[in-house]
């Protein structure tokens, strides 16, 4: 593995700024493309590293995190327009004092999750010695080292989990089908729920600001469990914290593009566009891109100060399990539906461990081809 470099002053010049220009609302020659979970278990080179190294060890070791972040960039040379730092949304609950294990084949497991509101006192974030930058400095070091190792090929993205999604993991103790334990807090203990959400939002905002200082060039907030909430409860328990995070980061770094991915929350498109200052709204595959474009444009046009909102997404990842012809056709269709501008191509959710890496190449090539054609 290459030597580790923590100099945050002399980063290499950026050679491909397609993602950044699009995220800022500029017209570009084609749609930039990257994929959620582009570093992950579908790649044999990733699994080879994981045989020897526990999941959070890869996150905490800057040389390993850099290596894994760069793996898809190397394999799909010239086809990806962004890198996303290898880490996990669960590093925040960990930093706040909860133990998180990554169980092979199962996913995250909290041996001792939050059970009742009195458990909030177990979280360390209000303690006198608590510092987000100290607790999560290993992510900053991974970002700085990766930014150097990228050599300016593409911009580097940082990310966090959104408060509602992290609250869900902290109470459920892992993935869950109904989120009944976490949702019970919303209705039985709304004050405690809001306290937890506000504390996580505070840590998340500080963490994102630190990630930019360390070298992240754009940011994404993952609200993966938004779709479990009704529109009314999304407006109450998710949206205000998403808006707060974006506002706090933008107050320090107004020019760093920010994306929100509220999976399953297409009902909230207008609110995300008008009530938050995210530059990009990432869509899952449950909404037609043209319909999303129209709704967002209509909502923005009614604003006193309209701005352009970029959309990201949204191919159903399981389409990559289909044949090459189908992948090409569906990708072209998706690009046409988003239209000839303000689109960052992506899947509607992350890569799956069962994906064939060569099918992802077909998707990436198809985006290059069909989105360039649209703009001619
Ligand atoms: O053993 C392994 O290697 C575990 C697989 C894995 C990987 C590759 C996990 C466990 N996390 C990650 C990396 C990861 N997670 C990234 C890295 C960068 C990239 O995208 O390439 C990112 C951005 C995440 C974010 C993440 N983690 C989310 C939000 C996005 C989403 O998928 O909705 C969520 C919900 C998690 C929790 C998590 N971590 C890992 C798993 C398997 C899960 C999901 C479990 C569940 O369904 O509850």
From TrEMBL:
Keywords: Lyase. It comes from the Eukaryota. Its EC number is 4.1.1.37. It is an enzyme of class 4 (lyase). This is Uroporphyrinogen decarboxylase in heme biosynthesis. It comes from Coemansia furcata. The lineage of its organism: Eukaryota, Fungi, Fungi incertae sedis, Zoopagomycota, Kickxellomycotina.
């Amino acid at each position: 593995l290459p030597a580790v470099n923590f100099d945050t002053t002399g980063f290499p010049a950026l050679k491909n700024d397609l993602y950044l220009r699009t995220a800022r609302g500029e017209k570009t020659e084609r749609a930039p493309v990257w994929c959620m979970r582009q570093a992950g278990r579908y790649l044999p080179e990733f699994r080879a590293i994981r045989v020897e190294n526990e999941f959070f060890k890869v996150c905490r070791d800057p040389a390993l995190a850099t290596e894994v972040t760069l793996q898809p960039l190397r394999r799909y040379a010239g086809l990806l327009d962004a890198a996303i730092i290898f880490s996990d949304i669960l590093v925040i609950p960990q930093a706040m004092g909860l133990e998180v294990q990554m169980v092979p084949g199962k996913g995250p497991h909290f041996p001792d999750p939050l059970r009742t509101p009195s458990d909030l006192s177990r979280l360390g974030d209000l303690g006198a010695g608590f510092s987000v930058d100290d607790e999560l400095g290993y992510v900053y070091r991974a970002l700085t080292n990766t930014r150097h190792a990228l050599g300016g090929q593409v911009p580097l993205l940082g990310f966090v989990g959104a408060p509602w999604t992290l609250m869900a993991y902290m109470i459920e103790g892992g993935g869950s089908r109904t989120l009944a334990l976490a949702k019970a807090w919303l209705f039985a203990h709304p004050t405690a729920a809001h306290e937890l959400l506000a504390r996580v939002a505070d840590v998340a905002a500080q963490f994102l600001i630190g990630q930019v200082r360390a070298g992240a060039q754009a940011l994404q907030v993952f609200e993966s469990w938004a779709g479990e909430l009704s529109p009314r409860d999304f407006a109450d328990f998710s949206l205000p914290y998403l808006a707060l995070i974006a506002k706090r980061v933008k107050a320090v770094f107004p020019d760093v593009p920010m994306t929100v991915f509220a999976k399953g929350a297409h009902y909230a498109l207008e609110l995300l566009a008008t009530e938050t200052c995210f530059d990009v709204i990432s869509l899952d595959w449950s909404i037609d891109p043209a319909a999303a474009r129209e709704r967002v444009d209509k909502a923005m046009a009614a604003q006193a100060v309209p701005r352009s909102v970029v959309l990201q997404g949204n191919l159903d990842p399981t389409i990559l399990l289909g044949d090459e012809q189908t992948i090409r056709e569906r990708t072209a269709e998706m690009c046409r539906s988003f239209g000839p501008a303000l689109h960052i191509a992506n899947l509607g959710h992350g890569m799956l461990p069962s994906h064939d890496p060569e099918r992802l190449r077909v998707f990436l090539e198809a985006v290059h081809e069909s989105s360039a054609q649209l703009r001619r």
